TrEMBL record:
NCBIfam families: pgm_1. The lineage of its organism: Bacteria, Pseudomonadati, Bacteroidota, Cytophagia, Cytophagales. Coiled coil: none annotated. It is an enzyme of class 5 (isomerase). This is 2,3-bisphosphoglycerate-dependent phosphoglycerate mutase. The active site is at 9 (tele-phosphohistidine intermediate), 85 (proton donor/acceptor). InterPro entries: His_Pase_superF_clade-1, His_PPase_superfam, PG/BPGM_mutase_AS, Phosphogly_mut1. It catalyses: (2R)-2-phosphoglycerate = (2R)-3-phosphoglycerate. The gene is gpmA. The record marks 155 as: Transition state stabilizer. Substrate binds at residues 8-15, 21-22, 58, 85-88, 96, 112-113, 156-157. PROSITE patterns: PG_MUTASE. Its EC number is 5.4.2.11. One of its GO terms (molecular function) is phosphoglycerate mutase activity.
Length: 201
């Protein structure tokens, strides 16, 4: 029986400031570091064979803090661009409230939540899903088939996309899905990679 645990990074400086982050490389806040340590404590019963994160510092730092809490800091970390947050294009760095005032709530909501609508010069969630699922199939699936226990720390939209694939979510379901900073979703999978159990921790 293999395990896959997905964790969203802790609160970042951009989350706290209320700006669109995307590929901006911003650190965790003190609250974000506390959320990461808290995630590690909630995973105290887990022992991982491999750990993965995006190449953005908020993802890697969260993973490092989790592994430290688990006394698994020596575990090799595999960082990949494919696990980066959705690219928000021209919205990156803009204040969300000011963007709503300029473009209207309906338009900004479509840019943020829609599966097929892309922000100006950015990715749709569908595009994000394509790159994340390709990485899952190429890198994670072989390890899971070998019965390994994997920890993946990534970003809200990246994890929404991956959960859509894993759980068979509809477009409406994934558009409504919210994943809190520091949030954890744990799966157990059969040798055929059928999910046998899943839980939020």
């Amino acid at each position: 029986m293999s395990q896959l645990v997905l964790v969203r990074h802790g609160q970042s400086e951009a989350n706290r400031a209320g700006v669109f982050t995307g590929w901006l490389d911003v650190p965790l806040t003190p609250r974000g570091e506390a959320e990461a340590r808290g995630a590690g404590r909630r995973l105290h019963d887990f022992h991982f064979d491999a750990a993965y994160c995006s190449t953005l510092v908020r993802s890697r730092r969260t993973l490092e803090l989790i592994l430290a809490e688990l006394n698994q800091a020596s575990l090799a970390i595999h960082a990949a661009d494919a696990l980066r947050e959705r690219m928000y294009g021209a919205l990156q760095g803009l204040n969300k409230a000011e963007t709503i005032a300029r473009y209207g709530l309906e338009q900004v909501t479509r840019w943020r939540r829609s599966y097929e609508d892309a922000p100006p010069e950015g990715e749709t969630l569908h595009h994000t899903l394509d790159r994340v699922v390709a990485y899952y199939n190429e890198v994670l699936v072989p390890a899971l088939r070998a019965g390994q226990r994997l920890l993946v720390v990534s970003h809200g939209n990246t994890l929404r996309a991956l959960r859509m694939q894993l759980e068979g979510l509809t477009v409406a379901q994934v558009e409504a899905l919210e994943i809190p900073t520091g949030g954890i979703r744990a799966y157990e999978l059969s040798p055929a990679l059928v999910i046998t159990s899943m839980a939020d921790l």
